[in-house]
Design a protein that fits this description.
Blueprint lengths: L14 H25 L8 H22 L4 H6 L1 H21 L1 H30 L5 H24 L17 H29 L4 H20 L3 H28 L4 H28 L3 H4 L9 H8 L1 H13 L6 H9 L4
Length: 351
């Protein structure tokens, strides 16, 4: 049987970059999970060193990567000046209004907005791989969509039905669901993944129509979300499996697109400046969060501030970059309304 593809494989960036991005990030998450099991970290709250690595250097940093696609790109900013100007202002105004109605209402609303963003990003990768592979059939789109959505939604429903010893942002920021919801969704979850990989193997072995990047995204999403939420009831496990496979690929996408647009003379210097600025902005934001609100890591950020009742505006203000990232992300990667991005994706070498 001839297993060679009938045409070049549809990688997003390149075979090496795609594998390092998606397999590499998932591999790092699983390696940290194994290390946590061996050392006992998995049974404790996330250690400070891991919090810095995952939350500050990956999760918060990737939020600011959006700026390189929007506010730091003057041509793009001018093209959608009203969108990019109004979203932060409205994010603060609406966030402050919700916070004034109750702290828990604010955090719950933010948690569900974040969940929507995380779930949609994984679908977005699958959609891009479908485009690169010229996959236009309706059946395939339904199977692919069901698999990638349920790969993240089922563990989330499990979480809602079986309270865990970790939270998205703060304790009890998720509502409760009756356990029957998880029992109903479980068979659909396993069926959708079985159909997806069965169809993928059929297309590969019988038609030589391989799309390994898409398969990797679905597989790593299913494994990391299931292990991090369902298998382990651990803040450590949830953090490494949730944050790493979300933040690193996003920063790679923005960095790749920036390189396509700017074409820096010194590639590595450009990468270091890009990552360095993201880390600096992430550190400054977390400094304000810790000194003003959380007061948990004085050893890193310094003495806590006495802000009195000013958390009413400080919390919504500090959440603006996050909310702006969630909202703008649903606009800036749509190929139909972003011709430069569509051209860059289509023109990318796919060998």
């Amino acid at each position: 049987m001839n297993l060679a593809p009938s045409h070049p494989l549809p990688w997003l960036f390149s075979a090496r970059t795609d594998l390092l991005t998606f397999v590499g990030s998932a591999g790092l998450a699983i390696a940290l999970l194994i290390a946590g099991s061996w050392t006992g970290w998995i049974e404790q709250d996330t250690p400070d060193w891991l919090w810095i690595m995952t939350v500050v250097l990956i999760d918060v940093a990737h939020v600011y990567a959006t700026c390189f696609r929007t506010y730091f790109d003057l041509n793009e900013f001018r093209r959608r000046i009203w969108l990019y100007s109004l979203v932060p202002l409205l994010s603060f105004a609406i966030g402050a209004a919700i916070y004034s109605e109750g702290h828990m209402l604010f955090w719950r609303s933010l948690a569900y907005l974040a969940v929507f963003h995380f779930v949609r990003q994984q679908y977005g990768w699958v959609a891009l791989y479908r485009t690169k592979g010229n996959e236009t059939d309706i059946t395939g789109r339904v199977i692919d969509s069901a698999a990638i959505y349920l790969a993240s939604i089922y563990p989330l429903v499990f979480w809602h039905c079986h309270p865990r010893n970790f939270a998205w942002f703060v304790n009890t920021d998720f509502a409760r669901l009756p356990e029957i919801a998880e029992r109903i969704l479980a068979p659909l979850y396993w069926i959708s993944l079985t159909l997806y990989f069965g169809r993928s193997l059929y297309r590969g072995f019988r038609k030589q129509e391989w799309n390994p990047g898409k398969d990797i995204v679905v597989l790593t999403t299913a494994v990391c979300w299931y292990v991090g939420i369902v298998t382990f009831d651990s803040d450590y496990a949830f953090t490494v499996t949730n944050v790493i496979i979300h933040g690193i690929p996003y920063m790679v996408l923005v960095g790749w697109y920036r390189e396509k647009q700017v074409a820096p003379q010194n590639r590595w210097r450009g990468i270091l400046l890009f990552v360095g600025l993201l880390w600096l902005l992430a550190f400054v934001e977390e400094l304000f969060w810790d000194c003003g609100i959380w007061h948990e890591r004085g050893w890193l950020f310094g003495r806590a501030w006495d802000i009195g009742d000013n958390d009413q505006w400080l919390v919504p203000l500090l959440a603006v970059p996050q909310i702006t990232h969630y909202i703008l992300d649903s606009f800036i990667w749509r190929r139909r309304s972003n011709p430069d991005f569509a051209s860059a994706i289509q023109a990318q070498v796919i060998y």
